[in-house]
Amino acid sequence: MIDLRVVKKDGKVEDYSRAKLERCIDKACWRMNDEEKSNLVDEIEMKLLNWKSVEIPSREIGLIVLNKLKDLDPVAYIRFATVYREIEKVEDFEKLLKEYKSK
Prior knowledge:
The chain is mainly alpha-helical. The protein is 64% helix and 9% strand.
């Protein structure tokens, strides 16, 4: 049980949910096996536990996930980033790909 609250974009605060994080990881990381996904969630949770406050903005959790995925699985990174950054246009998707390639 993690005593952590997530501050959403609209300012609402809700309790942290491992299940919610697992669903996000599962959608982005469809090529990983269950053990790899579970280990990834564990690593992300360790970063969350070391956060300076018990309230963490959802955008910060998203950045932590992106940073982990960047080195693990480029396709999962792009899949997650399109949702996280609310990519709706092809031009924005192309920009995201260029940014990833330049890193």
